[in-house]
Amino acid sequence: MDYSFLDFLALLGAVCLFLYGMKVMSEGLQKAAGNRLRSILSAMTKNTFMGVMTGMIITALIQSSSASTVMVVSFVNAGLMSLEQSMAVIFGANLGTTLTAWIVSIFGFKVNMSLFMLPLLAIAVPMLFMKNSQYKSIGEFLIGFVFLFMGLDAISANVPDLSKSPEIFQSLQAYTSMGFWSMLIFFGVGLVVTIVIQSSAATFAIVLIMATKGWIPFDMSCAMVLGSNLGTTITPLLASLGGNTAAKKAAAGHLLYNIFCAILMIAAFFPFVDMIVWLTRDVFSFGDPTTLYDYTKSGGSNATMIADMQFAMSMGMSLYHTVYNIFSLLIMVWFTKQYVQMVNFLIKSKKKEEEEFQLKYISGGLVGAAELNIMQAQREICVYAERVERMLGMVKELIHTKTGTVEFNELYTRIGKYEDISDRMEIEIANYLNRVVDGRLSYSAKLQISTMLNFVSEIESIADSCNNIAKTLVRKEEIHAHFTQYNYDNIDTMLKYVSEAMTNMVAVLCDLDNATTEDLMRNYNKEREINNFRNLCRTENIENINQKKYPYQAGIFYLDIICEAEKLGDFIVNVIDGVEEMIKRRKNPDVQSTVKFEQEVLSKS
Predict the structure, then answer these.
(1) If both were cysteines, with which of 44, 368, 443, 585 could 133 make a disulfide (CB 3.0 to 4.6 Å apart)?
(2) Prediction pTM value
(3) Distance of alpha carbon 553 from alpha carbon 383, whole angstroms
(4) Which of 329, 424, 270 is nearest to 59 (CA)?
(5) pLDDT of residue 174
(6) Per-residue pLDDT tens digits for 369-399
(7) Angle at the Cα of 204 (from 201 to 205), degrees rounded to 5?
(8) DSSP string covering 432-453
(9) How confident is the model over 345-354, as a mean pLDDT?
C-alpha cells in the first residue's frame, strides 16, 4: 500500500475540519440560545434530578461535555453552585454527550449527507448577511454542521485502505487477540487521543471510522470509547488550574467520577459488550456489530453487506456509549455526598485570607459557552461595585476619625489597599471582557460588553474619588487645618446623598436583567440633589470665609471634599446612563438605535 506523508496530512486536515465544524456548530447554537442558556443555568436548584437534567440539556445544546464541565468548574469557582450541585450537572453532562455519537452514527451511515451538504450551504451562507443576529447564529450552526460531516467524509476517504495491505491486518490482529490486555491497550489509546485533541466526540468519530473500515473489532472500539470518556476530563482539569480551591474540587470530582465508572466498566467489560451486542442485534434489530471485522478480514467485498454491517457497528457503538453512561449515572448518583466528602478530603481548602481579594466570578480561562462569559463578568462587576461601596463607607468613617491616631492611619492604609485592589480588578475584568468580545458572540452581546467596559471604568473612577477624599484629609492634617461642626455636617449630608445613590446603583448592577426605569429615576433624582447641594455649599463657603467663620485653608479643603463627592455622583449617574441604554435596547432592539448606541458607548470607552 502506497500511503505517503501527504496522505497522512490530508487525514490530519480531515480531523481538523471535523473539529472546526463541531466548534462552529456549537458556538452558533450558543449564540442563538444565549439568554435561554443562561436562564437554564440560573434556574438550577439543589435538586439532584434537576442538576442532572440541566447538565444533559446544556451538553446536548452545545455538543460538548468538555465545555459543559468547564462551565461547571467556572460556576463553582464563582460560587454560583455548590460542589454537590456541580456533581449532579457533571453526571448529566456525561449522558448528554452521547447525543453527538448518535448524530454521527445516524447521519454518517444511514443518511447520505453528501447529498445535503451544498444545499445546506446555499441556505446557511445567505443567513450570515441578514440583519437579524438570530438568523446569523442559525446560519453559523448550519455551516458548522456541514463542516462536521464534510470532515467525517474526508476522514473516511483518507484513512488507508487496509484491504490492500494484509500485513497491517496482521499487526493489528496481534493487539486485538490478547483478551483483557488488548482491552487495556485500546482503552489507553482512546484515553491518549482524547487528551491530545480534547474532544471525546472527535475521538468517537475517529474510532467509528476505524471500526467501520474493519481496522478493529467491535469490543476494541468500545474500549477506545471508554478511554475517551476518561480522557475528556483533561479539559476541565486544565480550566481549574486558574481557579480557586472550589474550582479544583469540581474538576477533581469530575475526574473521580469518570475513574470510578471506568474501573467498574473494565471489571465487567466483556459481559457488558456481549449485552450491547444482544441489544443491537436482537432487541433493536440493527444487526450484529461484531461481524464486520471478521468479514473484512476474510476478504469480503459485498458493498450492500458491508454497508449494513457498518450501520450495525455504528449503532452498537452509540448504544454502548449511551448505556454505559446511563448505568454509570444510575449507580453513581446515589454516592454524590460521598464524592463531595472524598474531594474535600483530597483537596484542602485554603485560608480565606489567601483568597479574599481574588476575582470571585471569573478566572483566568473563559467558559466553553461564549455567551455565558457575559453572565459571569456581569456578576463580577456587581462584586466590584459592592467592594467600592465598602470603600465609600470607609471614607465616611475616616471623616470622623481623629487624624494622627493609629485608627486613622490604619483606616487610611486600608482605603489605599482597596484602591490598589480596585485598579487590579478594573484591569482583570476589562481584559476578561476583551477576550470574551474576541470570541463568537451575537451582535447585541458585543454591545453589552462595550457597556460593561464602561461600567468598569466608571466604578474605578468612583474608587479614585474615594481615595482622593482620604488624601485630602491627610493634607488637611499636614497643615493643621481644622473643620467646624458646620463643615462636618455638610460633608456628612453630601456623603449621605452619594451613599444613597451608590447603594441604588449597586442594586441595579446586581440585577441588570430586571432593572426598570423607576430604579434609574431614583438615581437621577439623587444626582439633582447632589448637584444642588454642591452649588449651595460652594456659595455659602465664600460667604463663610469672608465672615471669618473658619479659615480660608480649611474652606479650601472642605470645598475640595464637597466637589470630589459631587464627582462621585457624576460617575454613578454615568453607570446609570449605560443601564438606561441597555433597557432601551431591550425594549426596542432596532438596528439603527443599536448602531447609534454602539458608537456612543465606544466613544465613552
Answers:
(1) 443
(2) 0.59
(3) 38
(4) 329
(5) 64
(6) 556 677 778 888 988 999 999 999 999 999 9
(7) 90
(8) HHHHHHTS---HHHHHHHHHHH
(9) 61
How would you label 531-562 residue by residue, b for 16+ Cβ within 10 Å and e otherwise? eebbeebeeebeebbeeeebeeebbebbbbbb
pLDDT exceeds cutoff 80 at 2: no
Per-position b or e across 333-344, b if 16+ CB within 10 A of its CB = beebeebbeebe
- Rounded to an integer, what distance in angstroms lies between the CA atom of residue 204 and that of residue 600? 48
Q: Could you count the other beta carbons within 10 Å of the beta carbon of residue 439?
A: 17
Amino acid identity at 411:
L
Q: 10 Å Cβ neighbour count for 176?
A: 19
Give the pLDDT confidence of 441-459 residue by residue, as tens digits. Answer: 767 778 888 899 999 999 9
Q: CA 63, CA 190: separation in Å to the nearest integer?
A: 19
Task: Provide Rg for the chain, Cα atoms.
Answer: 31
- Where helices occur in 333-401 by DSSP H, the ranges are 336-346, 352-355, 370-399
CB 301 within 8 A of CB 309: no
Which residue pairs, CB below 8 angstroms and at least 24 apart, start in 418-421? 418/387, 418/388, 418/390, 418/391, 418/394, 418/463, 418/466, 419/391, 419/463, 419/464, 419/466, 419/467, 421/357, 421/387
pLDDT at 98 over 90: no
**Helix (H/G/I), strand (E/B), else coil: 97:** coil
Non-local (6+) Cβ contacts of 216 within 8 A are 172, 176, 186, 207, 210, 224, 293
